């Protein structure tokens, strides 16, 4: 790091300027961040690219009719048969809901065991959500034995928004609890854990304000993105704090002046932290090329969080630490000792000796183990997930959708929307499409005609998606376009597949270039990239086995591999950056082989702690009632632990030892120890 930048938070005077500056930033960030919830978007159509056909239909609907709207469907079911009292109850509900929308029904099912009310809601998203609450309150008083649910597009939107709107508060509390627990276990100090937590909390507050400004500038920010923001800032920020604090503690033993100790700690640990943050940030920004607005929006949101975490941990954290006495480390206070040398004993010294003695057996064995784990990819089901499969539980709209599918045309309440220039052959083209059960009345305007086509199959089923494709083939010659809930799902999944094919190679290339610049070598970056990709594949393999045979999930969304790839590759490279930068430093005086073992010894504890903290933080996502969040929590937590405990601790050091000085090709580092004086010359590793 630049010497002037290092002095800023580590100087006796300027540390106070840093603290005051952060106080001002926090006041601004807190004010803006408090408005973030009001600009998040959770509608499915907000995620689609503008070029998607379903998006084009939404825009064309404005030409046919200017009012926004959405349909709510009230499902009634009595297994023994609908009674006259049930019908009277439904008619009363329809009358009470007249101010919400002109209800149609009750419509009886042919088997006589179910009926439904169709309630069109006119207005924007907030109006729809309030109307659904009103409908649910109105229909909740039903005769005993009559099951009543609110479903349809409006009911599904309401359930989804309720989940996303409840993410931030509970998730933040769980994340904080996890971080506090892990810091207490790591430091075993009643005071020290507060410092990194304050710095991480400050970074999160600032990042919320930045993300709010990005949303106001037009970025699509979803509830999922804001939830991941909290986990990412606290997880990555705590990792950076652990590395800096560990190096600061080491330098406090060598320097009586704590300000000088912090300056040296930042100069030596800072480049690794900055390189790590840059890797994650640039990797996340690669998501900007995604077609899906939700995916492209996640990139800047996550990048903003990482940048704020970097800023806090390289400025605020050092300023706080040097403003506090050494006693903050109590009960194990680092005392100044001119003869101090980092210990060559303990668990990680034993691990280093084990790696040094059996390097080839270790790297071949761990590589084979990871290869075996990748076989689980055959069990990983990736693709469109049904509405029911998206929730861990069964919300009201999902239960109602199942009732409709049992007793009516399964697509009732979620029709395909067909819009085309007015043409006499449009209705015939729709009616002649296999899988279309009913066609509604035409709505015309501005030279366009709109039909709503009820599908014979559930709107989230593969059969319904096939019907949408057939409909599109039928109406495209007439200039028509097909939208609606099923079409939105089709376009979303196809865009997700496209994004994975484009972004994964892009991220690999960008991260590789960063490593080449950082390590000034080709072989070492290739080694790191190869091991991280292998670790990613093994993690997905384990996910396939666990999701299918343990959790019993329907499958993973098409965008799941890309999101997990971004987090595991970018964050996984972090730990290897921490290790290899220290190895390079030690290799300059000890030679490559001894430098690798020395680097593993002195960084093993802190990097493992960082990995465990990050895994535990992401595991907090599992508390949310969304299958996608639980899958992400498991995948990232397991992948980070696998990378930390196996890849970084055994595979990478063993490979590096076996390759030797060739690790730095085409650059060169000394292959034999240099003669040094002073305490740092003494070492016994290797």
UniProtKB/TrEMBL annotation:
<feature type="transmembrane region" description="Helical">
    <location>
        <begin position="361"/>
        <end position="380"/>
    </location>
</feature>
<feature type="transmembrane region" description="Helical">
    <location>
        <begin position="302"/>
        <end position="324"/>
    </location>
</feature>
<keyword id="KW-0812">Transmembrane</keyword>
<keyword id="KW-1003">Cell membrane</keyword>
<dbReference type="InterPro" id="IPR004869">
    <property type="entry name" value="MMPL_dom"/>
</dbReference>
<keyword id="KW-0472">Membrane</keyword>
<feature type="transmembrane region" description="Helical">
    <location>
        <begin position="227"/>
        <end position="248"/>
    </location>
</feature>
<dbReference type="InterPro" id="IPR000731">
    <property type="entry name" value="SSD"/>
</dbReference>
<feature type="transmembrane region" description="Helical">
    <location>
        <begin position="502"/>
        <end position="519"/>
    </location>
</feature>
<feature type="transmembrane region" description="Helical">
    <location>
        <begin position="564"/>
        <end position="583"/>
    </location>
</feature>
<feature type="transmembrane region" description="Helical">
    <location>
        <begin position="632"/>
        <end position="665"/>
    </location>
</feature>
<feature type="transmembrane region" description="Helical">
    <location>
        <begin position="269"/>
        <end position="290"/>
    </location>
</feature>
<keyword id="KW-1133">Transmembrane helix</keyword>
<feature type="transmembrane region" description="Helical">
    <location>
        <begin position="595"/>
        <end position="620"/>
    </location>
</feature>
<comment type="similarity">
    <text>Belongs to the resistance-nodulation-cell division (RND) (TC 2.A.6) family. MmpL subfamily.</text>
</comment>
<protein>
    <submittedName>
        <fullName>MMPL family transporter</fullName>
    </submittedName>
</protein>
<dbReference type="InterPro" id="IPR050545">
    <property type="entry name" value="Mycobact_MmpL"/>
</dbReference>
<feature type="transmembrane region" description="Helical">
    <location>
        <begin position="169"/>
        <end position="187"/>
    </location>
</feature>
<feature type="domain" description="SSD">
    <location>
        <begin position="531"/>
        <end position="657"/>
    </location>
</feature>
<feature type="transmembrane region" description="Helical">
    <location>
        <begin position="526"/>
        <end position="552"/>
    </location>
</feature>
<feature type="transmembrane region" description="Helical">
    <location>
        <begin position="194"/>
        <end position="215"/>
    </location>
</feature>
<dbReference type="Pfam" id="PF03176">
    <property type="entry name" value="MMPL"/>
</dbReference>
